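Regression test case RT-17, inverse folding.

Input:
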């Protein structure tokens, strides 16, 4: 017997996936980052070795505040990744920070004030990381709020999430999924007879 909340969650998930698939299937498949291309890196390294004499080192221009903003975002993201690994959620590879936050809120692991805190921290950090000038008030907000957020995330006690073994009829993925009839790889929703 499934709990009503679980069934509702699945229905919402299916509706979202169906909507997304109808709307634009490609948007869902954009990953948060690209894998480094080893052959391109080798090409660049060789170029740099050949032109070493014309390149001066030690010209990084990152301020201490910007470093703090970067570490704040990284600390949050590392904790979130850990939580999602524990949950065993097969969607986590493609989740960005905000998606992970909303999932945790949906699963009632974090409250609204934590969600808002993380959102505002990430907004400031993103500005800094993208080279925008950030003001002292925002920097201080991150410094003050980060420990609260990290403590909240650290103290999340995740429940075991049951995973279903599935075989996807569309992309032929064989593995585990949070939902009996949703492929975690291509997000296809199929009818299981
Ligand atoms: Zn699939």
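Golden output:
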């Amino acid at each position: 017997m499934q709990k009503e909340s679980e069934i509702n969650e699945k229905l919402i998930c299916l509706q979202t996936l169906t909507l997304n698939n109808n709307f634009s299937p490609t948007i869902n498949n954009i990953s948060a980052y690209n894998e480094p291309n080893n052959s391109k890196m080798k090409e660049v390294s060789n170029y740099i070795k050949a032109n070493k004499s014309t390149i001066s080192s030690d010209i990084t221009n990152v301020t201490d505040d910007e470093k703090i903003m970067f570490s704040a975002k990284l600390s949050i993201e590392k904790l979130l990744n850990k939580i999602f690994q524990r949950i065993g959620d097969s969607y986590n590879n493609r989740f960005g920070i905000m998606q992970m936050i909303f999932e945790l809120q949906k699963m009632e692991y974090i409250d609204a004030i934590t969600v808002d805190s993380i959102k505002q921290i990430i907004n400031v950090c993103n500005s800094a990381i993208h080279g925008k000038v950030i003001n002292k008030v925002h920097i201080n907000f991150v410094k003050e709020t980060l420990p609260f957020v990290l403590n909240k995330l650290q103290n999340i006690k995740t429940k075991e999430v049951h995973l279903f073994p599935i075989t996807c009829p569309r992309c032929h993925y064989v593995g585990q999924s949070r939902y009996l009839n949703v492929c975690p790889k291509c997000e296809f929703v199929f009818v299981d007879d």
